[in-house]
Design a protein that fits this description.
3 strands; 3-stranded antiparallel sheet; Arc Repressor Mutant, subunit A; mainly alpha; 2 domains
Length: 131
């Protein structure tokens, strides 16, 4: 996949990639069914062809139909998207991004969630000190 990751995808291409990451794999018909304000089946197939040419998806033939799968693993795509978001919206500040996430979810976080986040922070501190 090109170095720009998912930044140069159209809105519809991003929607299709979201569906593929959620499901892991899907046919054109399944993607069409999952899309909000769905275009025609031909339009979905055309977008899948474009995504394949860009190196974001590949297809496998199963029982006379194409099944599409993302090329980049979901975890790698998640990290790439997060790095891009932090760089774009938080000027590269992980602290500001975490603060914004905590502010956004403060009322929804339960004690167990906060404890788990606290343990992750402590672990990151130890790893940082060891380096």
């Amino acid at each position: 996949m090109r170095k720009d990751g998912h930044r140069n995808l159209s809105r519809r291409e991003r929607q299709i990639m979201d569906i593929l990451y959620q499901r892991g794999r899907a046919t054109g018909a399944e993607i069409l069914e999952a899309l909000a304000d769905a275009p025609t089946y031909s339009a979905v197939r055309a977008k899948l062809r474009v995504l394949e040419e860009k190196g974001h998806v590949r297809h496998e033939e199963e029982a006379l139909r194409y099944v599409y799968v993302p090329v980049m693993a979901r975890e790698a795509a998640r990290k790439s998207a997060l790095r891009h978001m932090v760089a774009t919206f938080f000027s590269g500040s992980v602290e500001d991004a975490v603060a914004a996430l905590l502010d956004l979810n403060a009322a929804k976080l339960e004690a167990a969630d906060l404890e788990r986040i606290s343990r992750m922070i402590e672990s990151a501190k130890r790893e940082g000190a060891a380096s």
